[in-house]
């Protein structure tokens, strides 16, 4: 049972480049979400999904796109990377958004130069 | 929108001292969750509180949910070096889960 798998673990991008952070879970969780973590800012919600085909914006969605074509996968796309997007990104999933604990992936450390 | 506030942001304690972090929500919560993140790691679920006034214990950790279901606290008795990390509270609202900014605990030997 792999849980929540995030790839890559580390990534360096140049300003303007695009990339996709992958997230997959094998627990049949309906709720999936992306957070970014910056020093002193805690965990800020980027986008979330309550089920396949449904996505919505969180607190800091600008510059990011998501899709949820299957229950298992929830990729996060950076359209045109900026230095302000340098951060640690966590994907998390749970059975529901209401009363189930979140399971986190190991994170992706992204640096944009 | 919903806000979850946590204090203090940082706490340094001598090993063996107690530690408390407080969480306040701008709205009434159906439940509150607590997570721990070790340095360099990812957040790991600790516990969920659901009932008004609920108190739960996990060894040296005591979790409380306020009567109005808008605040919560985590108290660690006699801290150990293994308690080092950042403790987050999180609450559900509007189909999403919002985290506080966390309290980073440093243990001085």
Describe the structure concisely:
The complex is a heterodimer of chains A (113) and B (109). Chain A has 113 residues and is an all-beta fold. Chain A is built from no helices and eleven strands.
Give the topology, please.
The complex is a heterodimer of chains A (113) and B (109).
Chain A: E1 4-7, E2 10-13, E3 19-25, E4 31-38, E5 42-51, E6 54-57, E7 64-66, E8 76-78, E9 87-94, E10 103-104, E11 108-112
Parallel strand pairs in A: 2-11
Antiparallel strand pairs in A: 1-3, 3-8, 4-5, 4-9, 5-6, 7-8, 9-10, 9-11
Chain B: E1 4-7, E2 10-14, E3 19-25, E4 32-37, E5 44-49, E6 55-58, E7 61-65, E8 71-76, E9 85-93, E10 96-99, E11 103-108
Parallel strand pairs in B: 2-11
Antiparallel strand pairs in B: 1-3, 3-8, 4-5, 4-9, 6-7, 7-8, 9-10, 9-11
Average pLDDT figure of chain A: 95
Q: C-alpha Rg of chain B, in Å?
A: 13 Å
Shape of chain A: globular
Largest interface: A-B, 26 and 25 residues
Query: What is the structural class of chain B?
Result: mainly beta
Which regions of chain B are unreliable across 5 or more consecutive residues at pLDDT < 50? none
Averaged pLDDT of chain B, please?
95
Quantity of strands of chain A, as a count: 11
What proportion strand of chain B? over 45%
Structural class of chain A: mainly beta
User: Radius of gyration of chain A in whole Å, from Cα?
Assistant: 13 Å
Q: Count the E strands of chain B.
A: 11
List the helices and strands of chain A in order: EEEEEEEEEEE
Q: What percent of residues of chain B adopt helix (DSSP H or I)?
A: under 10%
**H/E element string of chain B?**
EEEEEEEEEEE
Characterize the quaternary organization of these chains: heterodimer
Strand residue percentage of chain A: over 45%
End-to-end distance of chain A: 36 Å
Question: Helical element count of chain B?
Answer: 0
Distance between the termini of chain B: 41 Å
């Amino acid at each position: 049972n792999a849980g929540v798998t995030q790839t890559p673990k580390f990534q360096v991008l140049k300003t303007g480049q695009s990339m996709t952070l992958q997230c997959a879970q094998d627990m049949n969780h309906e709720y999936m979400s992306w957070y970014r973590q910056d020093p002193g800012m805690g965990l800020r919600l980027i986008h979330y999904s309550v089920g396949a085909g449904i996505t919505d914006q969180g607190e800091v969605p600008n510059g990011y796109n998501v899709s949820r074509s299957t229950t298992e996968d929830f990729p996060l796309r950076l359209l045109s990377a900026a230095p302000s997007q340098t951060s640690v990104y966590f994907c998390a999933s749970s059975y529901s958004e209401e009363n189930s604990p979140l399971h986190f992936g190991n994170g992706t450390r992204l640096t944009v130069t | 929108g919903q806000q979850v506030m946590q204090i203090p942001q940082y706490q340094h304690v001598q090993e063996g001292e107690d530690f408390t972090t407080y969480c306040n929500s701008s709205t009434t919560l159906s439940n509150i969750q607590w997570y721990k993140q070790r340095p360099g790691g990812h957040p790991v679920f600790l516990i969920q509180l659901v009932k008004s006034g609920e108190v739960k214990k996990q060894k040296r950790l005591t979790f409380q949910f306020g009567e109005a279901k808008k605040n919560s606290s985590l108290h660690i008795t006699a801290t150990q070096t293994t308690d080092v990390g950042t403790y987050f509270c999180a609450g559900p609202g509007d189909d999403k889960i919002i985290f506080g900014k966390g309290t980073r605990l440093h243990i001085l030997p």
